[in-house]
Amino acid sequence: MKKKLQFIFVLLFSFATQVGFSQAREITGTVNDTDGLPLPGVNVIIQNTNRGTQTDFDGNYSIDVSEGEVLLFSYVGYTTETVPVGTQNTINITLQEDAAQLDEVVVVGYGTQSKRNLTDNVAKLTAEDIEEVPVPSIQSTIAGKAAGVQISATNGKVEGGVNIRIRGIASIGAGSEPLYVLDGVPLINNNESNNGSPTNPLLTLSANEIQSIDILKDASAAAVYGSRGANGVVIITTKKGANKPASFSMNYSYGISEPTNTREWLNADEYIELFTEAAINGLGEDEGIPYIEGIFDYISDGTDWRNREVDTDWQDLALQDGHVQDASLSMSGGNEKTTYFFSGAYNDTEGIVRGNELERINGRVNVTHNFNEKFRAGMNMSFSRTEIDRIANDNAFVTPLQAIAQPAISPAYLEDGDPNPNTLYPNFLLQDKHAFYNTVIRRLTGRGFGEYQFFDFLRFNSDFGYDLYYQTEDNYVGRLAPFQSTNGEAYASSVGTESYVSSNYFTFSKVFNDIHDVEVVAGMEYNQSNRRFQDVTGIQFPTDDFQTINSAAEITGGSGEESANSFLSYFGRLQYSLFDKYLFKASVRRDGSSRFGEDVRYGTFPAVSAGWIISEEDFLSSSNAISFLKLRASYGETGNANIGDYAALGLFSGISYNQRPGIAPVQAANPLLTWESVKQTDIGLEYGFLNNRISGEIDYYIKESDGLIFDQPLPGTSGQSSITRNIGLLENEGFEFVLNTTNIETNNLSWKTNFNISKNNNEVKELPDGADVIIGETILREGEPLSAFYLIEYAGVDPDNGDALYYVDGVGSETTTDPNEANRVIAGKPYADWIAGLTNTVNYSGIDLSFTFIGEWGASIYNGGGIYQSANADYFDNQSRDQLDRWQEPGDITDVPQARLFGGNGTATSTRYLQESDFIRLRNLTLGYTIPKDFTDQMGLEKFRVYFTGINLLTITDYDGYDPESTSDAGQGVGVSFYSAPAVKTMSLGVNINF
């Protein structure tokens, strides 16, 4: 009996244990899309219960279930999947896209959100949009892909700055660049160049490591970043691993580059003809001929110019064919506990301007580990080293492009092969041979993060990010280089900027009664940046073989400085959805910055938005034509603190007076200096027709920048030249239109099109005392566009005598030959009214083709070098060939005045050198072929694809300068070109291999 009782007890215990286990068994897994990428925020619900959870940022989930229950996986834009639990402990799911829904998930500040329920204006680009574009800059890969986002490189130099404008320019004196956030870390984006031309700090990033780029355009989206969101926010998310076996991806491409355009300059025959005529017209035949022949003797440097012994193409020497080499290798994978992504990349770019090269290496490690069902942590870490061989800025005589000013009869080289030192202007070939300017940028960016899930509906995130930007510059000018009067000169500098950010926030997310979907995010953030700069200059070197500072016999200069700034922020965001069709969002951020006056350091930046998914209403839910229709509106305020670290303070500097130390004031104090604020209203309509084969959005916005920060001039008696103040009001108003179409969708053929176009009107509303601010060729004036061109109006040529004419008061008024009698008028603007992009993607039986056209209309470029290079032989600079069409006899109708040496005939700064820069450009084209899977399986590969990529293959424009997108990098002013290198045309062949 006792044994029977023991048996029954054991049997009951085993049964109870099994029942207990069945009631409390944990299921884990990962939810991916069809490309193997993790899906965050997927709802994992036990069918017919209110128990459930969501996948984390890496697509992982865990949930307690009982045997026999059914898991339901649902996600906006994807089909719903149901899976019986059975006896398995791991359930990995791949969700299929649902063509009947909008399927994008966008990254917003401190979280993600489905595009369907978004009440903000956010443009999303994926890895497919930016990969395989052979340019060093990631910003350039975005061009034409997002409405209202204008992207252009300053010029064709490999390190050149990139201008990105989101819905126009929002500031005058403070920075106009957007905030870049890499995996939650705000990136350092300061230009640290010391040779007069800017570098692009984001050159350090590689496109191969990027999963997506989300551009927050309106204030409702950007307001959660508060103080740094005035110019928009660009959120860059890097690739991550997934719960799958390890896989490798390799990409290699090699391409050749050339200038998009070259100009025609006078050859030897034409130069002698034009300048002989100009000397006769300017000095008279008796004096002019011997004078100009003496000049020809000088600049030909002993060669026989009469028999045209030399006919140098200086442009051909300055510009060259370059190359671009890209290689990357990545590995990703993981299991239910740990996922990983490792990558490395290499870029080698030889520029189209002689002496300009770039070499970069990148490495990245992203790891996430789930310690248990409650806690996960991870790390994102990247390192890059970028080395750049640089050339002088556009305003330096020794920059290669200024060689076009050299006469064609001047030899470039001596008989022994050395560069000719006896040229009209310094020969850049001497600089190329006897000098160098080398910049090395080392960057370390990292983020450690932890997430604790208190309940299914409440989690806490703690992130710590770090960005180290360390740059060194070394410049040596040898004794044989131009302008060198000592035995060599060396310059060395180093600058280190580190930024660390600590973010801590709670996220509450819950659905009540199946109709109320609520998410609340609340937290705080602290950001500290420190910068240290030092440089030294030395001269008198033993020989040019010694090129570092320690070999200098005399130290002639040196400086050092340290600065720091900090931000303390508190933020909150509420998102609410009723019946999954009535949407509401509100956010607020309270920011404090050390850059402003002590009593006005804090600013509050609120935003509110709402949306109505009309297509979910009964009167449209059964429509066969309308698949999706959403109306949304938003209002918000953001701030701009992109100014100097101590702009509000009165500063003093140490000086030497009669070799005794002292201090002197260098900056006037303004304790009332505070945030520049941007108030923006956006109204948008998102649409989808015919099962979303036609979709897109339409937006109208108005953006006002108030309390503009810029330097106001002070009277000389104050002892200071200017003071930084909040003065002025600027407005941008515009609309955006996006159209996506699926033109063909069959088993073998797919053709999709994206078209976007936007218009932006920019206007200065208020200035201090309503007074104009004239800066070079531009003006700030109330009621006019920002930095409008302010020039006298060129009226052409008097057909009777060849004199240049100018309108006294603009077009239609009387004319004068004296430019001093003509009044300046507003004649154009440097910013485009319209920008557009058109992308087509075609796939057919393993062949893929995609291409993007971009266009800009309404802007102008002023050719600052025109008074030298297109001046009808006013001085000895070689001339553009159109100057041959000069006035020569009474009755000639032309816009080129009579050639007169030293006559100043038509060379005044005027609209003669201002031209519209409208263009349409084939920005990129990719044609690829993927080998059929039957063959790749035999080779043990997942994928083998070969492709051709072209950048800037075609440009349609009436602009006759080098390039409608190239402007000066030497601070000549907005929209001014000055011996600026054209954009680069690149053609590459590449291969993708996955295994």
UniProtKB/TrEMBL annotation:
Highest rank taxon of the organism: Bacteria
**Listed Pfam families:** CarbopepD_reg_2 (PF13715), Plug (PF07715)
Can you say where in the cell this protein is located? Cell outer membrane
GO CC annotations on file = cell outer membrane
The record's InterPro entries line, in alphabetical order, gives: Beta-barrel_TonB_sf, CarboxyPept-like_regulatory, cNMP-bd_dom, Plug_dom, Plug_dom_sf, TonB-dep_OMP_SusC/RagA, TonB-dep_OMP_SusC/RagA_CS, TonB-dep_rcpt-like
Write the record's keywords in alphabetical order, separated by commas: Cell outer membrane, Membrane, Receptor, Signal, Transmembrane, Transmembrane beta strand, Transport
User: What start and end residues bound the annotated signal peptide?
Assistant: 1-24
Q: Which residues form the Cyclic nucleotide-binding domain?
A: 776-798
Q: How does it sit in the membrane?
A: Multi-pass membrane protein
Q: Give the family, as the similarity comment puts it.
A: Belongs to the TonB-dependent receptor family.
The protein's name is TonB-dependent receptor
Organism per entry:
Christiangramia crocea
